Amino acid sequence: MSVPAESWEARAAGKRARTLAKIPRAWRLDPAQLNSAKRQRNLTGAFINRFLQPREIEIVSQDSVELTRAISNAEISAVEVTTAFCKTAAVAHQINNCLHEIFFDQALERAKELDTYLTENGNTDQFHVKGVDTAMGYVGWIGSNLGTKDPSQAHQVESQITTELLSLGAVLYCKTSLPQTLLFGETKNNIIGQTLNPHNQNLSCGGSSGGEGALQALRGSTLGVGTDIGGSVRIPAAFNSIFSLKPTPERLSYREVANTNPGQNTYRSTAGFLSTSVGGLELALRSTLSAKPWIRDPAVVPIPFYEDEIFLVRERADADGGARELHLPLKLGVLWTDKMVGPHLPVLRGLRTVVSALRDAGHKVVDWEPPLHATAERIHASFLEADGAHDVHSHLDLSGEPLISDLQEAFQLRPPLDLLETQDLTLRGLEYEAAYSDYWNSSPDDGQIVDAVIMPVAPHAAVIPGKYYHTVINLLNYSVVVIPVTKANKDTDVVDPSYQPLNDLDKKNWEAYDPEAYDGAPVGLQLVARKFEEEKILGIAQIVTATLKAQGMTNCNTSVG
Amino acid sequence: MSVPAESWEARAAGKRARTLAKIPRAWRLDPAQLNSAKRQRNLTGAFINRFLQPREIEIVSQDSVELTRAISNAEISAVEVTTAFCKTAAVAHQINNCLHEIFFDQALERAKELDTYLTENGNTDQFHVKGVDTAMGYVGWIGSNLGTKDPSQAHQVESQITTELLSLGAVLYCKTSLPQTLLFGETKNNIIGQTLNPHNQNLSCGGSSGGEGALQALRGSTLGVGTDIGGSVRIPAAFNSIFSLKPTPERLSYREVANTNPGQNTYRSTAGFLSTSVGGLELALRSTLSAKPWIRDPAVVPIPFYEDEIFLVRERADADGGARELHLPLKLGVLWTDKMVGPHLPVLRGLRTVVSALRDAGHKVVDWEPPLHATAERIHASFLEADGAHDVHSHLDLSGEPLISDLQEAFQLRPPLDLLETQDLTLRGLEYEAAYSDYWNSSPDDGQIVDAVIMPVAPHAAVIPGKYYHTVINLLNYSVVVIPVTKANKDTDVVDPSYQPLNDLDKKNWEAYDPEAYDGAPVGLQLVARKFEEEKILGIAQIVTATLKAQGMTNCNTSVG
Predict the structure, then answer these.
(1) Is B309 a residue whose pLDDT tops 90?
(2) Is A224 helix (H, G, I), strand (E, B) or coil?
(3) Which residues 6+ apart lie within 8 Å of B325 measured at CB?
């Protein structure tokens, strides 16, 4: 390998400058505007709207379902919609630093060709788009698409899911920011620095799909694709007051998607969606599966979109005119704590809000006491760390860039795990999965097994940068939808001095709660169903959000409609 | 661990004696009868029938579908059917040494309780049945069910698929023999010695499910459960002139099934069926899936039995009154050789027979030239060998028994593979799968992609013991049905002296062909469809066998109806 002639700092700075230069002059903010953004805590809603025209605001306030309907009905042109989202994304990037790649020209060209079905798509920077870099936060990947291994293939490769979205009429116009390694709950790397939370600039936008989460909070996108192995599409949704779907791995194609250490295939990363509505997620899943991804990607399980499942859940909800009079109420478990790190007060209040709303609407909610999540967390972490960070360092070494400070300890180069130990961990993981499944089946004291479980996504609202200590487990490969629920409120979420921490980590996390800093931070929760139950959990998420809305109990959607 | 007081030889001999002692006196053969069997080349059909009554022969000549129909219609009792199969299995074991466990009492007890739906099931000795040993060929497992790890659980555990079969009305009455380690294409271990081929006692019955294959050739079973990671349900079917279904892993439950090195979960062993008819396989799959195994086993993908798929294939076959006038003929690929080891003449003739019959019936057959199987074979073998035989030796060490001579080289204890190397192999395996899938998709020169591919199961008919050199690849996890096609014939399958071996291994295999020894050896072929296409490949297998039968081109089924 030849030593790069240019320093990594220079390459990263060059990349940043080229990205900014791709923003048309008319959409550039002046220094006074940029300064006003820096002083602003909450960039969403009213603040970003001052840089947009009323018609643009009207467009970007709609979700994917409404927009595709309007375009199909020829009420609006694809070009007008694309222009509005490109402009909003351009503004969002200037005030919130959330993009890795900009290709508005390509998008507008494509929009001109389209006159029917269309969705506006952001894309996290793991997905290959022809003609565009996939840097995935590595300086060494700039200009070369190293995720594809063969340098002659630079910018030629297209991730299968990208192809599918394009074939379905999507317009791709930007790639959003990610953390170095992808394995971090914040969004920071040596190319763009960091992306902060548009709802509260003191806080992180989460990670890994943090840029997409931030962009959607600013309405610069209504639908994005991301991946999740430890919370990467769930955390950004919860932190930015939007929605996300983390399917079971093998439901959607991961072919030709860049990833950290893809040879670790025991616990798989999964492609998923972030959207400004549950309907947007449903549209994305239904559309993508209609392309039969399993024919081109042998890793995808051939399960078509089950309309029945969605309708069954909806019919239950609609029976007798409303959720309150259901014949067959949902039965939901609630995991108040994973017994490793207790939730901060805003998250606890979020759980109580949902439980109370669901009970008032006639649904059953039971406490969830599964096999200890700590067991799963240890196994899962072992797999993520198994290669001793060799993969990450191979990419860092391409440019000589260092690990970002937050990851220096976790990703220190060390000997890989022993294979026999890894195989033993595999067995223990399978045993845990079986035990969890047995617990789930054991629930029908009343003849009904639990439909889904409500859980925190993280023990805190959108986190104070540098204070992300605890990762969400993913050992079970369950189907998950994250919904926005509330926002931290310094007046109601006051510290309880009598709290007894469970352990040192819990103490550290508990002490990190700062009512003043967190004020206004989004809180999302995850709704978890079993493997390959994506349609069911989407249906349940629609019921839960409708229930919250009907009871006026949510303040999460002020900026996301 | 305490040192076993008894020698492994004594423990193995004790086990053999206890198994034989479980055969009721009335069913025991006398020394003259046993000697006549030893002198007999072919034990199937007429020979074994001399020890049975006409009514018993009538019963055991029927397949699972006919028997379940007869029992459901109360034309015959469950007890009478069970008795006939127990007696046949008892005779088969005395002349062919194919059982590990006998529990006829338990079976007859159960048959008395049943008056409706019932299938007669053999069971390879990996599946836990309550009250019965699972020794899986290891002396050290005798009496303790070590597959379950917890000795207090001895004989208490039931494999999930056992539970499912029982819930569906199956009667289990014996467990059939396997090779030590399961990873061998013949059936030999230190407990029972070896099981030979009932069609030709010079030859092996194959492995790992060799005992089940042999028992079915002798009509002592119509349906059996086995597992396959490298050919273990396919090879015994091909060698014993019966049928088998190797599904995609995760289609059926593997929960609580004993296995070699279950921590190697990258390339998974899969549970499958052996049967005396395609209809028996279809019945087994439909029945097992009707129990929704995914609810209790989180490793199972929730895909119900697709009746549509079966009917679609059948309708094609029946259109316009016969296969010859199909509107939509099947399009099948044919893999003449895997380019590592060329097929012996009986196998080549088998391929030609099928291709010619299919073409005559109006189906399309095209040559299949996929990415080199050698690539897949190397990757697959690396995973099977990755743990350096540590798992196998841990079980051998329980009793002090040695490896059988055939396996001493392959299973020598050695350092496990390096984890990074394993992860790299994982990636190369995924790439191979994707390339194979691309090749499959590239086939529609005529607008029709290949429905399935016809391949040898092994490069030879039922093999001469000690001459099994080459293993069938399984890297792709495809859905496979094995069908019997022909038998080796010393008069037609004469050696071609001009053959140029491809390599040393091919030379060794080619030289091992002996027309005299192989005469009468069954030849089966595999029909391969893509992942999770079990219903489709069963439907295609029905068309192919019907086509062969209609053209009088098969001599495979003389003893299996």
Answers:
(1) no
(2) strand
(3) B319, B362
pLDDT at B129 (0 to 100): 87
- Which domains can be identified in chain A, with CATH numbers? 8-550 (3.90.1300.10)
Whether A419 and B419 lie within 8 Å, measured CB to CB: yes
| Assembly ipTM | 0.92
Helices (H) then strands (E): counts for chain B: 19, 16
pTM score over 0.90? yes
Query: What digits encode the pLDDT tens for the residues B72-86?
Result: 888 999 999 999 999
Phi/psi of residue B188, each to 5°?
Answer: -145, 135
Q: Do A420 and B420 touch (CB under 8 A)?
A: no
Distance of CA A231 to the CA centre of its chain: 7
**In angstroms, rounded to a whole number, what is the distance separating the alpha carbons of residues B342 and B503?**
10
SS3 at position B309: helix
Chain A neighbors of B436, CB-CB under 8 A: 298
Q: Which residue has the higher pLDDT, A446 or A472?
A: A446
- Asked whether B14 and B141 are in contact (CB, 8 A), the reply is no
Helix, strand, or coil (residue A170): strand
B327 CA to chain A: closest CA distance, Å? 24
CA atoms in the 13 A half-sphere facing the CB of A460:
28
Could you report the per-residue pLDDT of A114-160, keeping only the tens digit for each?
865 556 666 677 888 888 888 888 888 887 655 555 667 677 889 99
Indicate the length of chain A as a whole number.
561
Taking 60 as the threshold, does the pLDDT of residue B1 lie above it? no
Contact A303 B298 (CB under 8 A): no
Single out the residue of A158, A94, A543, A121 nearest to residue A354, CA to CA. A543
Residue-by-residue DSSP string for B320-347? GGSGGG-SS--EEEE-S--SSSPPPHHH
Q: Are A174 and A133 in contact (CB under 8 A)?
A: no
How many C-beta neighbours within 10 Å does residue A380 have?
24
Residue listed under structure tokens 């273990």: B232
Are the CB atoms for A234 and A228 separated by under 8 Å? yes
Whether the bond between A208 and the residue before it is cis, its omega within 30 degrees of 0, is yes
Q: What is the pLDDT of residues B501-521, one digit of tens each?
A: 999 999 999 999 999 999 999
Q: Which of B301, B434, B476 minimises the CB distance to A255?
A: B434
Please state, in angstroms and rounded to a whole number, the distance separating the CA atoms of residues A56 and A61. 8
pLDDT tens digits, one per residue of B330-357:
999 999 999 999 999 999 999 999 999 9
Distance between CA atoms of residues A277 and A61, nearest Å? 11
